[in-house]
Write a structure and sequence with these properties.
homodimer; alpha+beta; 6-stranded mixed sheet; globular; Nuclear transport factor 2 family protein (chains A, B); NTF2-like_dom_sf (chains A, B); SnoaL-like (chains A, B)
Chain lengths: 144, 144
């Protein structure tokens, strides 16, 4: 039984971020890969949509310049033949401020012949913004 | 081939919200169902964790008092035997302000004997907060 593409991608992705070593990752990306991390791109320029291997390698390099991953736990996971989704909890450090950040993330991935063709990531962005600015943002209470 | 539990749950869930009719939903919830929508509970008291059928019916009733669902599109979906995950885009109205809200959401669901046993929902919360307050929240730019 061969290893699911998710595990190989996940190892190479985290190595790319923490060791700034993209060599393992490059052959695991489809030339036309579609990529999106949904969130406020004004604050996090490495969020947003990218298309194609070069653009995705560049954005992963940018992520690696901004955060270090300490650990991650998959709280939920689904594996298909050529697809995978997970809900994960990450412990990160923001490198510019040296602040710890704890973040919940969901991803949906598609692979073809072992290469990533689509990756969409949803982030608990309000929690991320508050931890990044370092103070609570005052919110009105919605009627209930 | 029987229908996947997700479809029955999804119909009953949206009917519960828009028609405030919980009768179809009640038999589709496990007595010990675990439920969580991650996000700022100070602003949205119907976010957060709930446990057990009664608590989940009550929180779905609260959601129905606060929003109306106009449409939803599943952008990604994975179905397992007793599990499902989707990334979805919702078009909602906030009932207190009559404001339209467009929202990306990811859910992971587990079923047992056709009943929901676990439901975890991640929301693009910063986007939701900005749309709810109705003005952009100023953010510093993270170093890059």
């Amino acid at each position: 039984m061969t290893e699911h593409s998710l595990w190989r991608f996940s190892r190479a992705f985290h190595r790319a971020i923490n060791e700034r070593q993209l060599d393992d990752l490059e052959p695991l990306l489809d030339d036309e890969v579609e990529w999106a991390i949904y969130g406020p791109i004004d604050m996090f320029p490495f969020f947003g949509a990218r298309r194609g291997k070069e653009a995705v390698l560049e954005v992963i390099r940018q992520i690696g310049e901004n955060v270090r991953v300490h650990r991650f736990d998959r709280e939920s996971i689904m594996l298909g033949v050529d697809s995978a989704s997970s809900m994960m909890r990450y412990s990160l450090t923001a490198l510019d401020s040296n602040k710890p950040i704890s973040l919940r993330v969901a991803h949906f991935a598609q692979f073809k012949a072992g290469r990533l063709t689509s990756f969409r990531v949803l982030v608990d962005t309000f929690d991320l913004v508050e931890q990044t600015v370092g103070y609570p943002i005052h919110l009105p209470r919605m009627a209930i």
